[in-house]
Amino acid sequence: MICPSCGHVNLPGNEECDNCRQDLTPLDRPQASNKVEHSLMEDTVDVLHSRKPISIRPTTPLQSAIHAMIVGEVGACLVTDASGKLLGILSERDLLAKVAGLKEPFAHLPAGDFMTPQPVTVASSDTLNFALDKMDAGGYRHLPVLKDGKPVGVVSVRDMLRHIVKLCH
Fold this sequence. Notes:
Elements: H1 35-42, E1 55-56, H2 62-72, E2 76-80, E3 86-91, H3 92-99, E4 116-117, E5 122-123, H4 128-138, E6 142-147, E7 150-156, H5 157-168
Parallel strand pairs: 1-2, 5-6
Antiparallel strand pairs: 2-3, 3-4, 6-7
């Protein structure tokens, strides 16, 4: 990167000019070229207005958890303790990978046995790009959203797509 103050050629990624110590970090930041890029880079997860999450306890029977997901029209529910602390997430993928094909009756087994413990989360103040990057890196379709350490929502790939489609109109 060429320093705008002194013209010195610096290595890419330098945070300051090796010659004059000019701060280069604002110059190294990508610039949005359209509404979608601007939103992904600047808007936070809060703009998605995610619904209140469906929360269950680890002891909730699996049949009840599945029913809650169907009625709530969601692809995942959060597993929390009595104080509301996030313990895990039970997603459609968990049901397919861990429940489908069980020979024993599963309806009354505890949901906690099938959840993904300690799921990757985002904060409500994280950027959309940050959340999408976590989803992509981990192959997740749902991320719990935490505010002050407590779950306040779930961001889904569908939420992201709806937001992007709105920006394109």
